[in-house]
Every structure is written in structure tokens, then in C-alpha cells.
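Complex record, two chains
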Amino acid sequence: MKITVESRSGSCAAFQCGERETILYAGLRQGLNLPYECATGTCGTCRARVMSGVIEMRWKEAPGAKKLKPDKGDVLMCQTRPLSDCMLRVPSDIATTCGNRPASRRGVIRGIRRLTNDVAHFELYLTEPMDFEAGQFVVLETGDLSGGRAYSMVNFDNSTAKVTFVMKRKPGGGFSDWLFTRRADEVQVEVFGPLGRAVYRPEEGKNIICIAGGSGIAGMMSILEHSTRADHFKNYEGAVFFGVRTLSDAFFLEALARYVTASNSKLRVTIALSHEDAKTPTHPDYPVLKLASGMVHDVAADTMQGRYENSVVYVAGPPVMVDSAIRALIMGGVPTLDIRYDKYS
Amino acid sequence: MAWKRICGADEVLENTAKKFNIDGIPILLVNYGEGYRAIPPICPHMEEPLEESGVIVRCVLTCTKHLWSWDLKTLEMKGETEKPLKVYDVKQEDGVILANIEEELAYEFDGAEEEDDDFFK
């Protein structure tokens, strides 16, 4: 099917869309920078208006569709499949992107391993290797459950067929609940990606600050892996704030400690405990990791006040935490272009 | 000209914004320290309520949802902002903030109406 999108400036772009794919994914994989953030129906950023043609919405109750005017033909492109040639209007400017284009791949999930009470690690083996930037995510779908789930890559490698993730188990949370109970199985999934703009690029030449809540640390691990390999901390500083409820909810500590050591302590990592007091100033088992009490965005704001100069700040975690952290960063004078986050929780 | 009283100048503290309803028209009054701006109360990007989502610092209003931001002195768009703010003229007289409200200012959220306007040009 032929999809034509008209941008706000009036320019048009056309691309082909298969029967089973959504208009957003078809456009992105063919190199158009269609607007999106979560790509899974929650944020509402990929809204468009269908001017002609017949479509079907996959997930009519998508939270991101709440503000749409369906009677005027408004849709979320990430949930829309065409049933005929279509013409859509998109309220932003559209251009062709350079760099990595996302694509559909198949993969098998293996090695599901519990890290804490409600966080698990898993590996995905792709049928074709994928290039991605540190900080990006993919959308996973299984035949058994409808709808995709977004997960940030934890590892970093060029053109790799093995990617790793963490997921937080949400009771009644569909995919994660389902995956959590399948430890021994090999699970077939469809994979779309890489996606997301909250990426690390060594050539930016700036200090790195990461503020993460819970499983939001995933993308930060990829950023730390890439920056460590790129010898970034030889010339720049890094500060990671990892928020968890209690010390027993923290994970990836060994890897974090390794990054601190590799950086000659130019990278500092603080574990912020929101639901218990930090009994010691550093972690009892990993003394290079600092401990602090409080919400992670408050701990980060207190520590970094007046020290944001020449920094890129990555933020990921529960929506309330992300909002609070961003607010504190703006108050702290961080330019908006240096704040990176993708909202898909 | 329809200059309407919004509030007393001391009702909206520096670097804060407060929403008012003036004859059925919602107005967000922003005090950026060096002056006031009266604007529609939603972000022109995705209709976020700026009274909650907005942060005012160093004369710049930023919507924390997607980081669109504007210099409130010059109304210049900052960063990746794609749409200008619409503003009502404001003035201060005898400790009272007044705004010139002819009709409600609103943003187009889909581009369709804009095209309809072009049709008559």
C-alpha cells in the first residue's frame, strides 16, 4: 500500500507500507523522521490525521490516543495499519534521516535470569545483526500477546546479533509478567528497532550525567560501556545516579564498579535509596560506589548543583521521576538540547 | 481594544505562572521577573497544561514534557521548538496587570485548519 504523508510545511513524502506493519514503522524503516517517542502507543507523539484511505487501529484504547479526535480521522501512526492507499497529515516537519534506519528482525529470547525480586535480565539473539547507538531501544512483540513493549539495550557492540535487556516485572503487566514466568523457555519474538534519540556520541565531547530510576539504568549501562571503550573519561567526567527503593533492589553493581575503576574515578556512581537510609557512605561490597538516601532526582540535583557545565544529561525511569529530574535540570540551567530522554515507560 | 484586568501584580510571584479565567477565556499569566506574558494555558506542541508542565528560569519558559522553550523577553523559540507562543498584549497600571483580549488565542494541532485558511487567500 502506498502511504503519502504531508508535513506541516506542506511538503509530501511517500512510502510503501506492508499489510502487517504500522505506518510509523514503515516510514521509519524507509528513512523518514516521522515524529515518535515511545513507538508503543503510550506517549501520543506520533499522532496524524488520515485525510483519505482506510485504516485499522491495532490498540484503540492506547493511552496516547486519549487526546485524539477520532471523528476527524486522528490516529497514532504506531498503532495504525493501512487497509488501502492512504494520505495522512503530520503536525511536524518531515525529512529523510541519515544514519541507522530501524528494521524488523526476528529473534529468540534466552537466558532469562532474575537480578532482584522484580527485575530480570534477558538476552535476545537476532536472526540478523543490528547496529545501534548506546541509549537506544527496540520494540519486542510475541505472537502470544498483542502489542509491543519497548526495552533499552544494556550492552553495546557494533553490528551484533546478541543484545541484552533488563525488565521490571509489573504485576498484571502483560509481557513482563509473561516473560518472567518463562525462565527456561526459548521465546520467539519480533523485533523492531533500533529506536530513540537519547543516545551517546563520543564526538560530542562533553561530561556525562546519568539519572536513572530502577530498570531505567538499562540504557545507561550501554552508554557507560561505549564511553568506557571510547576512553571518554580520560578527558571528561561522569556522574551516574541510580535510584532504587532499597539496597537489595540494586543490580548491575559489579559492572558499575568496574566502570568506575576503569575511569580512574573520573566516573562517580551514586546509588540513591528512596525507601531506606543509606547506612554507610559507600556500598559495603563495592566501596567505589557511593550510597545516598532520598529520591534519585533530588540526590542528583543536590550533588550536581552548579556543576552542569559542558554536560549531556541522560534521564530514564518512571514518568514521575523523569519529570522531576527534568524540572531540576532546567532549574539548574542545563540547556534543553543537552537533556536526553525517551519516554516509554 | 479590550483591556481586561487579570490580577494584581503581586498575585503571580516571580518565575511562576498562574491560570485565570477572564470572561470564559483561559489565560496563563507568566511572571518572568523582567515582565509579564499572558498566553494560552497550553503548550502549542501537545496541549500540555503549562501551569503544571512549565518551568520559568532566566526569562525562558520551558515545557518539561518535551522541552519546547521560548525566551519570554523576545518570544524567540529555543532549542528544538517548532511553534511560536501566542501572546496577548499586557500592561501594568497601578499595581494591576491588564491584558488586551479581543478573542481567545488558540493553537492549531493538526494543520488541517491552517490549510483551510490558505484556501481563501
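Note: Chain A has a mean pLDDT of 92.
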